[in-house]
Amino acid sequence: MTYCVGLLLKAGMVLLSDTRTNAGLDNISTYRKMFVFEEPGERIVAILTAGSLSVTQTTIARLRDTIEDEAAGTETPEPSILSAPTMLRVAQIVGETLAQVSADVADKLARMKQSATASMIVAGQRKGGAMRMFLVYPEGNFIEATDDTPFLQIGEHKYGKPILDRVVTPDISLIDAQKAVLLSMDSTLRSNLSVGMPLDLMVIEADHCTPSLTRRIEANDPQFMAMSEAWSEALRSAYRHIKL
Questions:
Q1: Residue 125: how many CB atoms within 10 A of its CB?
Q2: What is the maximum span of the chain, computed from C-alpha positions, in angstroms?
Q3: Domain total for the chain?
Q4: Number of other residues whose CB lies within 10 A of the CB of residue 213
Q5: Helix intervals (H) in 41-192
Q6: 210-213 contact pairs (CB < 8 A, 24+)
Q7: What are the beta bridge partners of residue 124?
Q8: Three-class SS of residue 44?
Q9: Beta strands 142-144 and 213-217: pairing type?
Q10: Residue 201 neighbours by CB under 8 Å, 6+ apart
């Protein structure tokens, strides 16, 4: 399992993902869940993935192959996510690719009475266009982040949702947004062993079309550890002071 979250704000976008792909007493592996495709200053597309690793790896590989084919001058049946005219079309391309890969994998796994699904968060901006963020389902359909719901989650999301519900609005600053997603992840890490370090954090300022911050947070990161302990102490203090 995994946990990924994306915030769509007036100031920009904040994205966070863990890297755990398997959890067990003696078998823990990691794999990057955040992928970035960009032409700096012109367009950027970030994709967060959750679910079957075979599905997500193949989907990302096919999207990357189309980009490379275009760069080489090879004719492609559909535009790549870097040449699509709008972010809506980007979400459609990702959804179509994910649905096709899911179907291909499902056919193979059905014979073994197994199943595999995946979902993705697609976020980005083209120069002159608006920032947009979508949650793409295994079937290829999607929903979009709005002012009323300025964050999207995939994977093991239930533990990290309460703090986002309470503090995230489209008007919060990018610094406060980073704090919100990190505390959301911290809550998830404490409650579910299938989510694990290290973490990948990215901030994209509005109209910049390139990351303003990319950060890999390891398990012993002193800043993250201090924030986690401060949040725990704040919760304990609030609990002690609540009167029945």
A1: 25
A2: 70
A3: 1
A4: 13
A5: 53-71, 87-110, 161-167, 174-191
A6: 210/38, 210/40, 210/41, 210/44, 211/36, 211/38, 211/44, 212/12
A7: 45, 132
A8: strand
A9: unpaired
A10: 14, 15, 16, 178, 181, 182, 213, 214, 215, 216, 217
pTM, full prediction: 0.94
Residue 58 tokens, joined = 């193949």
Those residues whose C-beta lies under 8 Å from the C-beta of residue 207, and which sit 6 or more positions away, are 125, 127
Give me the percent of the chain exceeding a pLDDT of 90. Answer: 84
Q: Residue 90 has which token pair?
A: 């980007």
User: What mean pLDDT comes out for the span 71-89?
Assistant: 95
Confidence of residue 64 (pLDDT cuts 50, 70, 90): very high
Query: Which residues span the domain enclosing 22?
Result: 3-241
- Residue 106 sits in a domain of what CATH number? 3.60.20.10
For 98, phi then psi, to 5°, come to -60, -45
Residue with structure tokens 């993902």? 17
Hey, what amino acid is at 147? Answer: D
> For residue 211, how many other CB atoms are within 10 A of its CB?
20
188 contacts 159 by C-beta, under 8 angstroms: yes
Q: How far apart are CA 84 and CA 91, in angstroms?
A: 10
